[in-house]
Amino acid sequence: MYEAGHAADADPTQWDFLSARPFANAQEFSAWLNSCAASSNPLFFTVVDQHSGKATGLLSYLAIAPEHGSIEIGHIWFSARMQRTRQATEAIYLLARHAFDDLGYRRLEWKCNSLNRRSQRAALRFGFTAEGLFRQHRVFKGKNRDTAWFSMLDSEWPLQRAIFEAWLHADNFDSSGKQKKSLQQIRAEQLWPARLDCINCGREARKNASRLSRPQCIISKLRIFY
């Protein structure tokens, strides 16, 4: 994983909005991983490519509040080889599905620095709704941070799950692995009929789940993987 984050093709801006920083060596990186593995809130996961068996990224649940039915996805670090790939989208889908379908949360949050345009675009692409801006919310790396808030609710999840699964389906990719339709295109096609019958949409999504192709990545608790 250290190699994936510090290779020659690594994105030099990947650390700009992360609490972590570029690490001087693998030992320093391992010490940081140990601290992540020991944490329960945030609860970190590692993303492992099914084909290569290599770890290609990290992400976590945080702001875990079961008494309120609220949980957040954050601390997302995807290596250059994983960014803008099918695996990256699938990793978010897997954590969202686990939060709603398995754990029964009613609210899923996404928060980011207001200067992090890439993260804000990703939140909207994944179906989160923008809720507003918390001004002067934090001091981050010695600078003011205004925080952009996004959320997805359990009532919205059946539609968003169907959109994720339609995009991830093998039929949506050609022989070279290129997508045929974007998430936005699929969302536009499904949004209006789903509004008319969201409950049936959710039932159909669960029925179609068995037709998903073999997953490209797996999510594993960091403490187990590492």
* Percent of residues in helices: 25-40%
The number of helices is 8
Cα distance spanning the termini: 10 Å
Describe the main β-sheet briefly.
7 strands, mixed
> Helices and strands, in N-to-C order?
HHEEEHEHEEHHHEH
DSSP E strands, number: 7
Q: What's the rounded overall pLDDT mean?
A: 86
Would you tell me the structural class of the helices and strands? alpha+beta
**Overall morphology:** globular
Q: Biggest sheet: strands side by side, in what order?
A: 5-6-4-3-2-1-7
The low-confidence parts are 222-226
Rg is: 18 Å
| DSSP strand content | 25-35%
What report would you give on this structure?
The protein has 226 residues and is of the alpha+beta class. Helix content is 37%, strand content 27%. The chain is built from eight helices and seven strands, in the order H-H-E-E-E-H-E-H-E-E-H-H-H-E-H. The protein has helices at 2-6, 26-37, 86-102, 117-125, 157-168, 183-196, 198-208, 222-225; strands spanning 43-49, 55-65, 70-78, 107-113, 129-140, 143-153, 217-221. A seven-stranded mixed β-sheet has the order 5-6-4-3-2-1-7. A hairpin with a 4-residue loop joins strand 2 and strand 3 (70-78). Helix 3 packs antiparallel against helix 5. The longest helix is centred in the middle third of the chain and has 17 residues, at 86-102. It is globular and about 50 Å long. The termini are close together.
